[in-house]
Amino acid sequence: MGGREEEEGGEEYLFKIVLIGESAVGKSNLLSRFARNEFDNNSKATIGVEFQTQVVEIDGKEIKAQIWDTAGQERFRAVTSAYYRGAVGALIVYDITRRSSFDSIKRWLDELSTHCDTAVARMVVGNKCDLENIRDVSVEEGKSLAEEEDLFFMETSALESTNVQTAFEVVIREIYNNVCRKAL
Ligand code: GDP
Ligand code: MG
């Protein structure tokens, strides 16, 4: 599902992007901020909805980003291969106020690479940057992890809407560039 299909009058782009990371880091809120500009204080697992499709424009082309959110199964480290199947982008999220969620990023990257090939556009996202006063992971640590692993990195706040749009758009643009390179 990283495809480009010829339609009459143009191409269609549909990119599957997955959200992964420990429970309660803010994955669902990043998605609702991006897709609906909403924030929800109740941390309830998404019920019934597997993904949301958001249309973005890049280079004058309409791109459908199909963004997948977990329904709480990450709590049991039981994200299925169906969740990852066909993904061409991933946001691997931790909570800057909870070090254990940062420490597990490598495990999530491993899991991602067992299910998807290496061409997946990946960004490490340090969420909840509005909570500076109780920060537990420095910006530098986030950056250097991302550099080590050759990933994009950004700190976000789903609450204050900081960098959320940008984070998704950087990943979408990278996927778009990958598809274009492949087509050459
Ligand atoms: P998920 O389990 O990773 O999907 O996390 P949720 O999106 O359900 O969020 C877990 C909790 O963190 C909820 O109580 C949210 O209100 C809170 N939360 C999510 N994003 C932010 C953020 O950017 N800043 C703050 N302060 N809280 C957040
Ligand atoms: Mg969730």
From TrEMBL:
It comes from the Eukaryota. Belongs to the small GTPase superfamily. Rab family. This is Ras-related protein RABA5b-like. The chain holds residues 1 to 184 of 217 of the full protein.
